[in-house]
Amino acid sequence: MVTCASCAVKNKCHKDLKCDLLKPKYGKIKHVVGVVSGKGGVGKSTITGILAVQLKKMGYKVGVLDADITGPSMPRFFGLENEKTGYAPTDVEGVYKFLPLKTELGIKVISMNFMVEEEEPLLWKGPVLGSVTTQLYQDTDWGELDYLLIDLPPGTGDIALTIMQDFAIDYLVMVSNPQTMVSMIVSKMINMAKKLEIPIKGVVQNMSYIVCKNCNEKMNVFSENSAQSQADKMGLKLLAELPIDTKFSEYMESGQAERFAATNPDYDVLYKAFKDDEKEIYERNAKTEKKFIPLI
Q1: Spatial distance between the Cα atoms of 179 and 63, rounded to a whole number of angstroms
Q2: pLDDT for 105-157, tens place per residue?
Q3: Which of 32, 107, 215, 227 is 20–30 Å from 60 (CA)?
Q4: What is the pLDDT, as a whole number, of residue 11?
Q5: What span, in angstroms and rounded, lies between the C-alpha atoms of 24 and 129?
């Protein structure tokens, strides 16, 4: 299989050389990261938003593609749920491109909820969903980005398969929580990534604990198993262990989740986990057996 991770000129590519993987038509993206989970309800979209904010705080140019087509939630995280966008003409007659919206911090976001009413169901089957995801990725005017985060739908369905097979993914970030059932289902996604030869940076254990408001005691919620032990069972590096924070819901409802993610010290652990990310990508690619040289 041809993947960017196994490309012989990966470190010089910046996704603009000719190869069999899909790349955006408008702009350049240096790194593409998929944020995935085996099942819904573990806070995958929340982690995508928080990670986008942390990368932005590092000085990177960041974009987010909401690939959870039938259950998009990135607009709400960034307080853009009432905003709309659509196509704009290009220099070629009859050819159009998507225009992403910008958040308060300057993160570029594209989502189907910017083009339909938020509560309108999309009654599309798998092939159409995959095609729409590809169109959002390729036809959006991203400009110059250091990172594009893709918020994938949960599970190993058509959209996840399309993205992992056809997109220029650098690596995946797994999102889980300490429940044994969740870890088991996430393992299916891990095995999918291995079969498709997509690197996994590690796992973020979300909703691992809650802190008592009265005594500040840290209490496990779903399981007494530690986040580290669960990560070890999955064979992944533990990137971060994040709590349930009741304040987050308040900020989300007021459209200020992005601001909360930028100021909450609990999320500094993600900042630390990704501060040497580009170096890690370079070192990982240097160790990868080179299987393919694209035409230049």
Answers
A1: 31
A2: 999 999 988 988 777 777 777 788 888 999 999 999 999 999 999 999 887 77
A3: 227
A4: 52
A5: 18
pTM higher than the cut 0.90: no
Residue 174: strand, helix, or coil:
strand
| DSSP 3-state of 256 | coil
Residue ranges of domains in the chain, CATH in brackets: 29-281 (3.40.50.300)
The average pLDDT across 69-92 equals: 88
The SS3 call for residue 195 is helix
Q: pLDDT value at position 17?
A: 56
Alpha carbon distance 230, 21 (integer Å): 33
Q: Which of 148, 171, 151 is nearest to 159 (CA)?
A: 151
H-helix segments, 41-157: 44-57, 74-77, 126-139
Q: Which 3 state secondary structure label does DSSP give 76?
A: helix
Residue 2 has a pLDDT of 45
**Dihedral, 110, 27, 3, 269 alpha carbons, nearest 10:** -60
What's the confidence (pLDDT) of residue 13? 61
**Cα–Cα distance between 175 and 162 in angstroms, integer?**
20
Closest CA to 55 of 239, 282, 271: 271
Task: Please say whether the beta carbons of 64 and 151 come within 8 A.
Answer: yes
For residue 102, name the pLDDT band (cuts at 50, 70, 90): very high
Residue 11 near residue 282, CB atoms below 8 Å: yes
pLDDT digits (tens, 9 = 90+) for 226-259: 788 888 888 899 999 998 888 888 898 888 999 9
Please work out, in degrees rounded to the nearest 5, the angle formed at the alpha carbon of residue 140 by the alpha carbons of 135 and 144: 135
Distance CA 55, CA 257 (A): 16
Place of tokens 């993914």: 169
Contact residues for 229 (Cβ-Cβ < 8 A; gap 6+): none
